[in-house]
Amino acid sequence: MMGILLADRSFERAHHAFVLAAGSLALGREVVLFAGGLAVEALRQDWSGLEGAALDHRFQESGVAGFETLRAAFFELGGEMLACEAGMKVAGLGEEDLCAGVRVCGVTSFLQRTAEAQILSL
Fewer Cβ in 10 A, N or C end of the chain? Predict the structure, then answer.
């Protein structure tokens, strides 16, 4: 199992988190992604609040999978996505703002869920 902790609202970090997650899932590894703090912006239906979101167009023009493609692959491959409850409050978001399938929880839930996992922080 792999736990991925997304710790800020940078588009590049979020994009890379989903690249790692999708790759790991494609290899048959279980993946839990936790967006802490304002990184919850990456789990919004409208993720344009990510810093540097305009880079997505450049990535796609370069033949790199776009953000939506990676997020969709994450769910299709069975990834588990968690949003930080405190981060949701700070960002002023409600569960209705998130992608379908995202679970809101605290950091302790993430740590319990990934107790035996390799954890990467981005």
Answer: N
Residue 120, phi then psi, degrees to nearest 5: -110, 140
Q: What is the pLDDT of residues 84-103, one digit of tens each?
A: 999 999 999 999 999 999 99
pTM (two decimals): 0.95
Structure tokens at 52: 């540097």
Residues 56-95 as b/e (b if ≥16 CB within 10 A, e otherwise) read beebeeeeebebeebbebbbebebbbbbbeebbeebebee
Token reading at 96: 């209705």
> Mean pLDDT of all residues in the chain?
97
